[in-house]
Design a protein that fits this description.
Chain lengths: ~120, ~110
């Protein structure tokens, strides 16, 4: 049973370009979370998605960032017109039953975005 | 006040010693609590869930104090491989059970 798969592992973009980060949840999980981690900081919740639905995007910046989780295929976090401040590690996690007590989140290895 | 607060450390501890750190949370409605471990530049991994009655897993003991709204992690007989950042995680509360709030982490360095 493959774990959460994120790609690419490393992504370099020039300022103004678009970044697309992909996440395939664990088999049997249909709930995906995206987090951002800046250097020397904790994880910040960005968005929670189910298949074809955004449930909570309260952590997403209002502009340039979007996320989707289509019926088929991986979840995509999209950052348009990247700026240097977007450089961070972006982690995706999936869980089987959101809301259940002690539901753990399983993480992918992250995508490290560097904006030059 | 942050929703989940941790002492960032670093805690420098000799191998074999016992070390403990706490994490405070602000939302009294929170129901799920976890300790994750994150090694440098890697993804967080679940160390242990924290149950109301406290729980132990080998050298690791986790406790929950609802009255004072904190959880603790105790590591006995520390090993060099315990060096990592320990992340405290709390769910947001009954109406947003899925949303996990993460502390910034406590860095632990075990020295030989």
């Amino acid at each position: 049973n493959a774990g959460v798969m994120q790609n690419p592992r490393h992504l370099v973009r020039r300022r103004g370009q678009e970044a697309r980060l992909r996440c395939s949840p664990m088999k049997g999980h249909s709930h995906v979370y995206w987090y951002r981690q800046l250097p020397e900081e904790g994880l910040k919740f960005m968005v929670y998605l189910q298949k074809e639905n955004i449930i909570d995007e309260s952590g997403m910046p209002k502009e340039r960032f979007s996320a989707e989780f289509p019926k088929e295929g991986p979840s995509i976090l999209r950052i348009q017109q990247v700026v240097r401040g977007d450089s961070a590690a972006y982690f995706c996690a999936s869980s089987p039953i959101p809301g259940a007590n002690h539901t753990e989140a399983f993480f992918g290895q992250g995508t490290r975005l560097t904006v030059v | 006040r942050k929703e989940v607060e941790q002492d960032p450390g670093p805690f420098n501890v000799p191998e074999g010693a016992t070390v403990a750190f706490n994490c405070t949370y602000s939302n009294s409605a929170s129901q799920s609590f976890f300790w994750y471990r994150q090694d440098c530049r890697k993804e967080p991994k679940l160390l242990m869930s924290v149950y109301s009655s406290g729980n132990e897993d080998g050298r690791f003991t986790a406790q929950l104090n609802r009255a004072s709204q904190y959880i603790s992690l105790l590591i006995r007989d520390s090993k060099l491989s315990d060096s990592a950042t320990y992340l405290c995680v709390v769910n947001k509360g009954r109406t947003s059970n899925y949303q996990l709030i993460w502390g910034a982490g406590t860095k632990l360095i075990i020295k030989p």
